[in-house]
Each structure stands twice: as structure tokens, then as C-alpha cells.
Amino acid sequence: MLVTRGLVSGYAGSRVLHEVDVEVPERGVLAVLGRNGVGKSTLVSTIMGLVRPMAGSVTVAGHEVAGSRPDRIARLGVGLVPQGRRVFAPLSVAEHLEIADRAGRKGDWTRERVVELLPRLGERMRHRGDQLSGGEQQMLAIARALLTNPRILLLDEPSDGLAPSVVHQVADVVREVCGAGMSVLIVEQNLRLALSVADRVVVMQKGSVRWDAPGAEFRRNRSRAEELLGI
Ligand SMILES: Nc1ncnc2c1ncn2[C@@H]1O[C@H](COP(=O)(O)OP(=O)(O)OP(=O)(O)O)[C@@H](O)[C@H]1O
């Protein structure tokens, strides 16, 4: 569904990703793990077209998108839940959803369906972004991405700063959207969340893939996982 091959990327003068190969399974979850600064967010930003790759390929459902603009990549069905949520403080939940609904691809994910999946948002419709808890902001960021009707959802550290009960809800949402036919790439520091949802796991170190394994193999080799992640 989403494949990178030999992806090299970074910022003016510095290479961060070194020939990264990852594959998001169709209707499945790829978890990308790694310590701070290994290049996980750079991978997500490069896939989304926010950072221009220096070499290599990114294909979405067979279309080459490396070097394309983010709007083309979004139109092909890639949705992003960015690190830090990027909720707008003065806008209400309803306004966030309306804007995403107007801008995105049309499809099965309507405002009604999104609120059914994330009922807390229904109770908070008139609240402003800065009146929401971290968990509510995360749900709003997910809702906004779902309203663009992606085939592939990129989630960049969705559990960051959230209470364990909310992390649980994030895992439930990931499972539900996969069950509804979406493919998911999730970047995580939270090993438990990643392991609870992943069909496949990639561990990165210093901008390279150090281990790429099915979720079950990763779960069996917990000590290797912890060693690579420095836990
Ligand atoms: N906009 C930028 N300009 C220049 N360098 C950057 C930029 N964003 C990230 N970097 C650098 O790229 C490297 C990888 O950062 P990245 O954010 O991709 O890592 P990460 O694995 O997502 O880490 P974290 O878990 O802290 O978000 C780091 O050395 C970082 O300082």
C-alpha cells in the first residue's frame, strides 16, 4: 500500500535518513520505533511531502510520489496526524471538523461517523481547541485526518504526553480504522502501544532501519527490541 525504497532525506546540509526501506501492509499497521532523534518524524514528513527526499522512492498504491507536493500526496489518500496534534487554540471542535470536511477527499468518513468513533468529540463540539485535554486534542487530530478519507493514516507519536487510559483509546481507534480497511503507519516511543497494534515493526537507529520484523517475531524477541530501543 505504501512502500519506501532507498529513501534518503534530511535538511539543508544534513542527511537524516539513509536508504530507508519500509512497507505499510494493506489494511495493517506498521509501527516505526526508535529513540529520540533517529529520524522517525523525518520519515513521516518525507512520505507526506513536507520534506523533499534526496534520493529513493515512495509509492502510494503504486503511484510514485517522492518529491511530490503534500496536496497531491493527500489526494492520493495519505492522511497525517502530526506530532504535537497542531490543534488551533481559538477554533471550536465543530469548526476544526467543518474545515477538514470541506478540504478533504469525500468518502465514507463523514462527520457523523467520526463522532460515532470518537464520542468524546461529540460532547465537546463547542469547546475551543485550547479548552480540550491532551487526549481530546489527540482525538480531534485523528478526526481531522479521518475526514480527509485516507487510505493510509500516518500517526506521529500519538501517545505523547497522554494518560495510560487515553493511550488505550488511541490503540482502539487504530484497530477500528484498520478493521474498516485503512492502512496505518504509527511512529511511537510507547512500546506497549506499538506492540498492541502492530502487524509489522521497524526499529530505526541513526536514520537507518536496524530491524524489520512481523509483530509476532518482535514480541517474541522482547530483549532484542529493548536493547535496540535502549530501554
Ligand atoms: N526542521 C529541521 N531542520 C533541521 N534538522 C532537523 C529538522 N527536524 C529534525 N531535524 C534533525 O533531524 C534528526 C532526526 O529528527 P526527527 O525529528 O526526525 O527524529 P525522531 O526520531 O522523530 O525524534 P523525536 O522522537 O524526538 O521526534 C535530528 O537530529 C533533528 O535534530
UniProtKB/TrEMBL annotation:
Q: Which GO terms describe its molecular function?
A: ATP binding; ATP hydrolysis activity; branched-chain amino acid transmembrane transporter activity
Where do the coiled-coil regions begin and end?
A: none
- A Pfam match: ABC_tran
List the InterPro entries: AAA+_ATPase, ABC_transporter-like_ATP-bd, ABC_transporter-like_CS, BCAA_Transport_ATP-bd_LivF, P-loop_NTPase
Domain annotation ABC transporter: ranges:
2-231
**CDD domains for the chain:** ABC_TM1139_LivF_branched
A GO BP entry is: L-amino acid transport
**Keywords from the named record:** Amino-acid transport, ATP-binding, Nucleotide-binding, Transport
Q: Which PANTHER family match?
A: ABC TRANSPORTER ATP-BINDING PROTEIN, HIGH-AFFINITY BRANCHED-CHAIN AMINO ACID TRANSPORT ATP-BINDING PROTEIN LIVF
The UniProt entry's sequence similarity note says: Belongs to the ABC transporter superfamily.
Q: Which protein are we looking at?
A: ABC transporter ATP-binding protein
User: What species does this protein belong to?
Assistant: Ornithinimicrobium avium
